[in-house]
Write a structure and sequence with these properties.
Largest sheet: 8 strands, parallel, barrel
Radius of gyration: 20 Å
Number of domains: 2
Shape: globular
Order of helices and strands: HHEHHEEEEHEHHEHEHEHEEEHEHH
CATH superfamily of the largest domain: Glycosidases
CATH architecture of the largest domain: Alpha-Beta Barrel
């Protein structure tokens, strides 16, 4: 956080406290609502890695045409979102573009990566492009295995050569997400810094984002600050883990407050939030992802807003659809989350 932003943040807190003293009838909930930030971005994918979780949108995305991918990007932009984080450029050793390294996914759209980046150029969306998944995405071996690492670097060069001219190719995303067990693992930091070293050569001005989990377990102490200083990333978007039932909305504000202080000390990466817009239909990780009620999502937004620079959501795709969307992907209840969020956003008068 810059000195100017810090002063603005402290001033906002002071104003909130003063308002509560001047108007005792104003509740803490009203104060929270007044400082809420909009969701300005989302994760994005051509296919969800888990068939069980993505059952409501994977089949639709297989059939999407170039025109439908553009329609989906336009729809997301109209919802006030500025950033999309591409989860994968390849999955299960098949690519979503014409690659010399991997076989290709059989999708209705011949080049979905070109389709969404061209649409994003047109509609003002900024993409963070993934450098995965080029092996078993569930395995920690993918971080350190020399053969996998080599293909990861080759694919980054290939993707840059094919798509680096797009204005919407804004940054990179390292998708092997860290589990913060009090602190980051040395293995994860090596993976991040190796990926970032090449990324800085390929696109020197691109922003680099990671999105770790284990947020509730992070210990933002001196050692954690040193790790933030050592990692070559521009943005850390912490998962709030409400959708996966690891955290309660009433807890997350304290987690992010501690992490905000660590980031202010490290003075390197910005702190963003990755709030989970879903709920599981049944067993966690083994059932369909369904849209969460906006009553819960609103509380998630309000809990993290005072402590982060921006809020992203996981994810628009599947969880939100504009009513009548020509690129509908998700359960029928996704239109309710969309309309409830958009009504709230309009009432907040976000610019």
């Amino acid at each position: 956080m810059t000195e100017v932003n810090r002063r603005e943040f402290l001033a906002a807190l002071a104003m909130g406290a003063s308002a509560l003293l001047l108007d005792p009838a104003r509740t803490q909930a009203e104060i929270a609502a007044s400082t809420a930030k909009p969701i300005v971005g989302s994760w994005f994918e051509f296919q969800h890695a888990s068939t069980a979780e993505g059952v409501d949108w994977n089949p639709a995305c297989v059939r999407f045409t170039t025109a439908q991918w553009e329609a989906k990007i336009r729809e997301i932009a109209e919802a006030g979102m500025e950033y999309l984080v591409l989860m994968s450029t390849a999955l299960y050793d098949r690519s979503f573009y014409d690659s010399k390294i991997f076989a290709k996914w059989d999708l209705a759209c011949a080049d979905p990566l070109e389709a969404v980046l061209s649409a994003a150029d047109k509609h003002g969306i900024r993409f963070f492009i993934s450098n995965g998944f080029y092996s078993n995405w569930r395995s920690s071996i993918a971080l350190a295995d020399p053969a996998t690492s080599k293909r990861r670097m080759q694919a980054m060069e290939e993707v840059t050569n094919l798509y680096g001219h797009h204005r919407s190719f804004y940054g990179w995303y390292w998708p092997h997400e860290a589990y913060i067990n009090r602190h980051y693992s040395d293995e994860f930091i090596r993976y991040v810094n190796a990926s970032s070293k090449l990324a800085r050569q390929l696109k020197p001005h691109a922003q680099i984002l990671i999105a770790p989990y284990g947020t509730r377990k992070a210990i933002p102490d001196d050692a954690y600050v040193r790790q933030l200083e050592a990692m070559d990333v521009d943005i850390v978007a912490y998962q709030d883990e409400v959708g996966v039932r690891k955290s309660k909305v009433t807890e997350t504000s304290a987690f992010y407050e501690g992490l905000r202080k660590a980031h202010d000390r490290a003075q390197r990466a910005k702190i963003w939030a990755d709030i989970e817009l879903f709920q599981f239909e049944g067993e966690v990780y083994n059932s369909a992802l369904l849209p969460a009620p906006f009553s819960r999502v609103q509380k998630q937004i309000e809990a993290v807003s005072p402590w982060v620079d921006k809020i992203l959501g996981y994810q628009y795709q599947g969880m939100m659809n504009k009513p009548g969307s020509e690129a509908f992907a998700g359960s029928p209840t996704s239109t309710k989350l969309y309309t409830d969020y958009m009504s709230w956003r309009k009432a907040q008068k976000f610019v």
